[in-house]
């Protein structure tokens, strides 16, 4: 057993060395990427399940590297968080999204644009000022901006989190809890946070149909309803998953079943097709 334990450790430490090198080169590349403007935003529609209307879009970051190809945000966002680049990247995607959403709200009746917020951004003392000045500068109605934060982000520094979210909420900005069900939110906190939406993590949707996943999805929808929160499911890929969500009266749905994340011009064409 000891032998096996040692081997495991050696394997693990080799693993860490190579990933540390990867991270270093990724960090160097990332700084260049921002200068070369290789980072851009894609948008994925969010559908109201009873009407089929597009009630919003989620903004997601993409990095098109000339040699590496499309680098996943799951790989480069942790690097950008470590070196602080996420602050300027995060502000930029928020500004782009607000500018685009102004047109979509007017021309296509899209209700809101949802922007992911990293823990590093949220922890900044001036986070609310940054958000409010982006909204003011872009002229988007604050009700049309939704911030997606994860449970762990808000639960970590509960007092200042409550304060920040309340300040933003008081200005009309919407808050969604992302990856809901994977963290440890307490119900009483959810009420204090002035949260508007729960986003059921896609791992539960992926597992449908399955007894446990069904029970969890159902419990989240019921809880959301009793707290007057809207509930959206992410990662919806099949008609069977959609049907289940409709049956339990989940409000909204997002996933490849409707559309992949698209650049702004593609989204506009998609919106026109969807509503005709
Ligand atoms: P997330 O916020 O939970 O985003 C959902 C992910 O699911 C996205 O991956 C999206 O493209 C993908 N997705 C959408 N529909 C489906 C589907 O039907 N099936 C499956 N299997 N996946 C689907 P993506 O774009 O690769 O982003 C991964 C994560 O990177 C995001 O997870 C988020 O945590 C982070 N991220 C992306 N953009 C940003 C950003 O601008 N700021 C921050 N802070 N994080 C971001
Ligand atoms: Ca998200
Ligand atoms: Ca999510
Ligand atoms: Ca996630």
TrEMBL record:
<protein>
    <submittedName>
        <fullName>Diguanylate cyclase/phosphodiesterase with PAS/PAC sensor(S)</fullName>
    </submittedName>
</protein>
<feature type="domain" description="EAL">
    <location>
        <begin position="23"/>
        <end position="275"/>
    </location>
</feature>
């Amino acid at each position: 057993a000891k032998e096996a334990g040692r081997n495991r450790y050696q394997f693990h430490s080799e693993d860490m060395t190579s990933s540390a090198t990867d991270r270093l080169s990724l960090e160097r590349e990332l700084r260049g990427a921002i200068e070369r403007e290789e980072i851009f935003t894609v948008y994925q529609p969010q559908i109201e399940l009873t009407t089929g209307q597009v009630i919003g879009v989620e903004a997601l970051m993409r990095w098109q590297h000339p040699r590496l190809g499309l680098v996943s945000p799951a790989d480069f966002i942790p690097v950008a968080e470590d070196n602080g680049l996420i602050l300027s990247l995060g502000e930029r995607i928020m500004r782009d999204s607000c500018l685009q959403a102004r047109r979509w709200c007017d021309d296509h009746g899209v209700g809101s644009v949802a922007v992911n917020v990293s823990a590093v951004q949220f922890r900044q003392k001036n986070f609310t000022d940054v958000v409010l000045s982006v909204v003011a500068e872009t002229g988007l109605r604050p009700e049309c901006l939704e911030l997606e934060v994860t449970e762990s982000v808000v639960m970590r520094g509960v007092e200042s989190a409550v304060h920040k979210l309340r300040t933003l909420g008081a200005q009309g900005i919407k808050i969604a809890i992302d990856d809901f069900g994977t963290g440890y939110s307490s119900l009483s906190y959810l009420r204090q946070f002035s949260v508007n939406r729960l986003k059921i993590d896609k791992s539960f949707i992926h597992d449908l149909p399955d007894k446990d996943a069904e029970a969890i999805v159902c419990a989240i929808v019921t809880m959301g309803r009793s707290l007057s929160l809207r509930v959206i499911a992410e990662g919806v890929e099949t008609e069977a998953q959609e049907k289940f969500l409709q049956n339990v009266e989940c409000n909204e749905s997002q996933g490849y079943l409707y559309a992949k994340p698209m650049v702004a011009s593609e989204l506009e064409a998609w919106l026109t097709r969807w509503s005709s």
